[in-house]
Automatic annotation (TrEMBL):
GO molecular function: ATP binding; ATP hydrolysis activity
Keyword presence, Transport: yes
Coiled-coil ranges (or none): none
Superkingdom: Bacteria
Protein name stated in the entry: ATP-binding cassette domain-containing protein
Keywords: ATP-binding, Nucleotide-binding, Transport
Source species taxonomy: Bacteria, Bacillati, Actinomycetota, Actinomycetes, Pseudonocardiales
Organism: Umezawaea endophytica
Assigned protein family: Belongs to the ABC transporter superfamily.
InterPro entries: AAA+_ATPase (IPR003593), ABC_transporter-like_ATP-bd (IPR003439), ABC_transporter-like_CS (IPR017871), P-loop_NTPase (IPR027417)
């Protein structure tokens, strides 16, 4: 049976950390709550791995606190039964099998072989568990790392880029697996630099850029915020429609093959203007952003190199 601490949460508050001239963490603050998969997402170098290392007591900070179940990680008496983590899925000794690796870890925690067999089965490695880990694919090493994280049956799980190296079948498995961990009441933090990896899995998103949080919200709220009050127009006369609406004071952008997204005007106003200008259109509808768009918008200033879209026109 799992012993759950009273507050199986991770609370990160005001973390600041500098590596030489690089400010890796610049006031990073958020909470990871039980029963939810929290996606920890941001471009490369945003500070995700550093934050996880700080939470796990592997890196010191210049300022701020990171608490696990109300306690700094280093003060936990039996840490692996509180927090399971996957930071770097480098293989264990290549000549050692997954099972032997896990047995060694389990013994260090006073756990027996039956727990090893349970976690091996849970991550779908049973048929490969007695093979040498040196021959494992990256996806199999990720599963082995997750099995190790689960050994102590912790209520908090931190996984850094667990989708790395997984094939499509592995990704589908991983999504369902993360959901099941949250449904068991665990607090699950999963980092990724790709929104597509976490969008069907996460309940909550902490979006980071340049060492700090740029959005901390439920998935639906993020989409609503990114959608704004924009209107989309489908038209065969896109250049004319863009010129007319832009002239009327709207901010317009081309999207898809034949669509213009418009902000600054109501749908009624857009229809009136298009009719008045005799510009044909097949549809005018409320624009709904995708999570990917929301993410790109939020992290726009945090990405060092990004190609600009030649289609974008603003007033
Ligand atoms: N040990 C280190 N020494 C020097 N700089 C570091 C070190 N670790 C991280 N950094 C720098 O700190 C910043 C944050 O890095 P971090 O690895 O935490 O980002 P990340 O969001 O996990 O990125 P990625 O998705 O690429 O893993 C980066 O600019 C990185 O180069």
């Amino acid at each position: 049976m799992r012993s759950t601490p009273t507050h199986p949460e991770v609370v990160v508050a005001g973390l600041r950390k500098r590596y030489g001239t690089t400010l890796a963490l610049d006031g990073m603050s958020f909470t990871v709550r039980p029963g939810l998969v929290t996606g920890f997402i941001g471009p490369n170098g945003a500070g995700k791995s550093t934050t996880m290392r700080v939470v796990l007591g592997l890196d010191a900070v210049d300022e701020g606190t990171a608490l696990v179940g109300g306690t700094p990680y280093r003060d936990l008496r039996n840490p692996l039964s509180h927090v399971g983590s996957l930071l770097d899925a480098s293989a264990p000794h290549p000549a050692r099998s997954a099972r032997d690796h896990l047995l060694w870890l389990a013994h260090s925690q006073g756990l027996g072989a039956s727990r090893v067999d349970q976690v091996v089965e849970r991550v779908g490695l049973t048929s490969a568990a007695r093979r040498k880990a040196g021959g494992y694919s990256l996806g199999m090493r990720q599963r082995l790392g997750i099995a190790a994280a689960l050994l102590g049956d912790p209520p908090i799980i931190l996984l850094d880029e667990p989708f790395n190296g997984m094939d499509p079948e592995g990704i589908i498995w991983m999504r369902g697996f993360l959901r099941s961990l949250a449904e068991q009441g665990r607090a699950v933090l999963v980092s990724s630099h790709l929104m597509s990896e976490v969008q069907d899995t996460a309940d909550h998103l902490v979006v980071v850029g340049r060492g700090k949080v740029v959005a901390d919200a439920g998935v639906a709220d993020l989409i609503a915020a990114a959608s704004g009050n924009r209107v989309a127009v489908r038209t065969a006369a896109r250049p004319e429609a863009m010129a007319l609406l832009s002239h009327a004071g709207a901010t317009v952008a081309a999207s898809g093959r034949d669509t213009v997204t418009v902000s600054g005007l109501t749908a009624d106003h857009v229809v009136t203007l298009l009719n008045r200008g005799a510009i044909p259109f097949s549809e005018v509808f409320a624009h709904r952003a995708t999570l990917e768009e929301a993410y790109l918008e939020l992290t726009r200033d945090a990405v060092e190199f990004r190609a600009t879209s030649p289609e974008e026109v603003s007033r």
